[in-house]
Design brief:
The protein is an alpha+beta fold. 33% of the residues lie in helices and 30% in strands. The strands form 2 sheets. It has a 6-stranded mixed beta sheet.
Length: 302
């Protein structure tokens, strides 16, 4: 569970005034943290500056100093020699860093289950490099009681390099590329992928979900059944299966069409389309899930 505070708003309300130009600061604090504790703006600046300093050292190739910013536990797991090797390989493969952005900051203080007492902060981020347009990850910092500053206790990066991305787009399709990246990026907390293209309904011959359902229910030879609340209609004539979301589902109203198209020489091609009238992010999520479940993302992703 996560508590979200709008600090500037709370402070203004306590004084009975609120400026329309007030810059609200979102503060995310995990459940179990010290009751009533809120990180100061100065503490947030210190955490962000720690991350920025680490990246400046990496950009400058000062791997010794960057490694020294890590906590003792992480340094033990990642000795200097291995750290330098990894960073050297990454620098060569990714190229120079173009930009990075912190997308969310989450705080924990003395919560049950933390490895050591003190303040933890997770900084989710995205980045772009000369040879890597798709990159996301996070860094976790720890500030022990009475410590002078933060130590890096964990870093994680997930990426798809441009060469691999181009290969997927050319050998399959740009849509397949975006689907693959969405699955890869699931390991990045709070990452929000770009919207899928507005071509998901290609191959669906109806204008609305209700029109599709009415036509299929009244078409001779179709078979209807229920699975987990979804209405599944099979149409043998068109070699297609239609899955209609139930009322109350976040994706309602929507229908997923899967069909087989003969390609000659006893071969066939499986396709999928989505007609969705829910919110765009929800529709994109449904297409992603159905593509994964139905084998339209066949790559082995690690």
């Amino acid at each position: 569970m996560l508590t979200v505070l709008w600090v500037a708003l709370l402070a203004a309300l306590s004084c009975g005034t609120l400026s329309a130009q007030e810059n609200l600061r979102e503060v995310n604090i995990t459940a179990g943290s010290t009751a009533g504790w809120v990180p100061t703006e100065e503490l947030e600046v210190e955490a962000v500056e720690t991350l920025e300093r680490y990246f400046r050292l990496l950009d400058a190739g000062d791997y010794d100093s960057a490694h020294a910013m890590m906590g003792s536990g992480l340094r033990a797991l990642l000795p200097l020699q291995e750290f330098v090797r990894q960073q050297t390989v990454s620098s060569k493969e990714w190229g120079s860093k173009i930009s990075h952005e912190i997308t969310k900051i989450t705080w924990t203080k003395d919560a049950p289950g933390i490895p050591q007492p003190g303040i933890y902060v997770a900084l989710d981020m995205t980045a772009k490099f000369a040879s890597v347009d798709r990159h996301c990850g996070y860094m976790i910092l720890h500030k022990a009681p009475n410590a002078d500053g933060f130590a890096i206790v964990r870093t994680e990066s997930t990426y798809l390099d441009n060469e691999a991305a181009q290969s997927i787009a050319e050998e399959d399709s740009p849509l397949q590329l975006e689907l693959v990246w969405r699955i890869v990026a699931r390991s990045c907390p709070n990452y929000v992928p770009d919207a899928l293209p507005d071509t998901l309904s290609d191959g669906v011959e109806y204008a609305t979900v209700s029109e599709a359902r009415l036509a299929l229910e009244n078409k001779f030879g179709t078979e209807t059944k229920e699975e987990n609340g979804w209405t599944i209609i099979a149409d043998p004539e068109s070699y297609s299966i239609w899955s209609f979301a139930p009322q109350g589902d976040p994706t309602y109203p929507s229908v997923v069409k899967r069909w087989v198209k003969p390609t000659g020489s006893d071969n066939s091609e499986m396709s999928m389309g989505l007609l969705c009238e829910a919110e765009k992010p929800v529709c994109d999520w449904l297409f992603e899930e159905m593509a994964l479940v139905n084998g339209f993302i066949p790559l082995s992703l690690e």
